[in-house]
Amino acid sequence: MRRKLVAGNWKMHGTRESAEQLVAGILAVFPAHCDVAVFPPYPYLAPLIARNGGALDFGAQDCSEHDDGAYTGEVSAAMVRDIGCRYVLAGHSERRQYHHEGDAQVARKVGKALEHDLVPVLCVGESLEEHDAGRTAEVVQRQLGTVIDHCGIAAFGRVIVAYEPVWAIGTGRTASPGKAQEVHALLRSQLARADDKIASSTRILYGGSVKPGNAAELFAQPDVDGGLIGGASLKAADFLAICAAVC
Ligand code: PEP
Fold first, then answer.
1. Mean pLDDT calculated for residue range 212-238
2. What pLDDT is recorded for position 246?
3. pTM for the whole thing?
4. Does residue 220 register a pLDDT over 80?
5. What values do phi and psi take at 30, rounded to 5?
6. Cα separations (Å) of 195 from 141, 152, 192?
7. How many CB atoms are located within 10 Å of the residue 7 CB?
8. Kind and range of the H or E element at 130?
9. 92 classed as catalytic
10. Atom of ligand 1 nearest to the CA of 210
11. Is residue 61 lining ligand 1, measured as CB closer than 6 Å?
């Protein structure tokens, strides 16, 4: 049985004060029936973890593919682990799009995260153009396949996959529950071709305009193991309502 995870990606939103309030709001009604994690902007991570680390899991939105060195602006997986993060996102579509991160680089980041005892959340998903051209399966299987090749299938005993169709992120458009299930099943069968047992334990989250009103139907799909939530994770009430939609 895979325990569901609801993860809030705050992106580059908020202030120190709003970040503290958001965490306090989540902790006030802490959902115990699923795993919950939040991914605040870097500067707020360490103080939030210092204050709330025992009560809530935290993740970073990215990490470097390098261990250390002259990489101005980057943050290593070791640093992210050092401040107490449990998770790190790898290959979010905004990193792929605006920072030109390719599949191989994303795979190296997943490898670094694993080396430093973090749980990587590997984001995959097709653009609108790829979707409209009927290339969803090809794109997500290529993205996942590169990480399987680089890290090995055993890594997926730990790695979490997030299917996030790019056309659904922040747009208010959501993949239908049936379509999400179809892609999740495809990803799981790709993992199963390498190792059936690992595939059945790998958590595959859905992300892309998940809201309190559509979460229950998405989370009810057999291969949807929770959600990666952007916009709706910025309001404690909405985020908690999404957590409550986990059955
Ligand atoms: C995301 O940023 O990963 C995301 C899914 O955003 P939103 O929920 O706003 O679509």
1. 98
2. 93
3. 0.97
4. yes
5. -60, 120
6. 16, 10, 5
7. 24
8. helix 128-132
9. yes
10. 8
11. no
Other C-beta atoms closer than 10 Å to the C-beta of 45 total 24
Number of residues in the chain: 247
- Per the listing, tokens 């057999």 go with 222
Single out the residue of 151, 159, 98, 157 nearest to residue 123, CA to CA. Answer: 159
Tell whether ligand 1 has an atom less than 6 A from the beta carbon of residue 106: no
Atom of ligand 1 nearest to the CA of 231: 9
State both tokens at 24.
Answer: 């306090």
Where in the chain are the domains? 5-244
Cα→Cα distances 207→27, 53, 90, 154, 178, Å = 22, 24, 14, 24, 14
CATH 2.30.110.10 fits 5-244, yes or no: no
Q: Which atom of ligand 1 is nearest to the CA of 211?
A: 8
pLDDT for residue 30: 82
> What is the tens place of the pLDDT at every residue in 139-197?
999 999 999 999 999 999 999 999 999 999 999 999 999 999 999 999 999 999 999 99
- Taking each helix axis from N to C terminus, what angle separates 177-194 and 136-151, rounded to the nearest 10 degrees? 30
Among protein residues, the one whose CA lies closest to atom 2 of ligand 1: 230
235-244 pLDDT, tens digit per residue, is 999 999 999 9
Our answer to whether residue 138 is catalytic in this structure is no
